[in-house]
Amino acid sequence: MTNEQNQFLVNLVNTPAPSGFEEPVQKIWKEEVEKFCPDITKDVHGSLTAVLNPGKDRSIMIVGHSDEVGLIINYINDDGFIYVRPIGGIDATILASHRARILTKKGVVHAVIGRTSLHLLTNTQKDKKLEMHDVWLDIGAKNRKDAQKYISIGDPVVFGENYEELTNGTAVSRCWDNRIGVYIVAETLRKLSKVKNLKNTVYGVSSVQEEAGVWGAGNPAYIYKPNAAIAIDVIPCSDQPEIPKEKFGVTKLSEGPVITRGVRSNNKIADELIEAAKRKKMKYQIDVDYGHTWTDADPISQSRSGIAIGVVSVATRYLHSSVETLSLKDIDLTVDLLTEYITKTKLEF
């Protein structure tokens, strides 16, 4: 990863863009990708598709989703405290004591997610599991009218801080899920743009609203009708405490891309991805799907008369939290794997 690529990655993960509000990240992605793949279109919902090497007989789509989980304001009480609903899957118990950013039309309003001081909690309150309606935001407002000067019902919220590198080539961000996917799509397109005599057309997609229902990528698939598609996403690590391997299998940081095999995943794509990893002499891992991949590959697989799909993931700890953690090495390996596969595959099914 060059310094320029690292800065692109940092810009992507530091920019707030929950489901339905992806435009700031899409702008960054488009400005970078059009440097080497200027043919980019946007659909009505905001998904971007870059077309590389158009007009070939066979085509493949690679897709990551640009959105992240977040919150959305649904109530302000008389005292000016703000209540929210989730955007995507969020465990309410992790929210207390976070700093948050409310994304308004006028700009960012900073907030804290409150929690009653330990000194004031009863034993019953201490034992209670927080639910989303127990969570409130505090912007320092005097009352509801004062709060409404700054924020409105329907404003989205993100929680957590920005990108930071840890030890041994790992890094933390609030939204590796799934800015890492759109970064890998962009960098794969960058490498493929330098390949001479590329046999296939490649569609690189930065999709929207995966976290809010796993549907946004279906639109580009319907429009462009690729012969195959690969979703790039994150996958929970099982290399941390309290994760039973018997239930979830084994996925580890710094052990290479995770290739999905199973029911909905096309076996030929999975086999060719594994062969590509072996040719490159790179580490890889295997995960299984048993009817759903829970990624953008699912709506793509059902588009028109059906599209062959695969999934390649980056192992990540603490998903849907403010401290998602992964290996930067795994990112580069995933780009190399996809480039090798797309360069060599015949897309024959």
Helical/strand content category: alpha+beta
Q: From the alpha carbons, calculate the radius of gyration and give it in angstroms.
A: 21 Å
Tell me the fraction of residues in β-strands, as a range. Answer: 25-35%
User: Could you spell the SSE succession in H and E letters?
Assistant: HHEEEEEEEHEHEEEHEHEHEHEHEEH
User: Structurally, how many domains make up the residues?
Assistant: 2
- Number of helix segments? 10
The name of the CATH topology of the largest domain is Aminopeptidase
Number of strands: 17
User: Helicity level, as a percent range?
Assistant: 25-40%
Oligomer: single chain
Question: Which labels suit this protein?
Answer:
alpha+beta; Aminopeptidase; Elongation Factor Tu (Ef-tu), domain 3; 2 domains; 11-stranded mixed sheet; 10 helices; 17 strands; 27% helix; globular
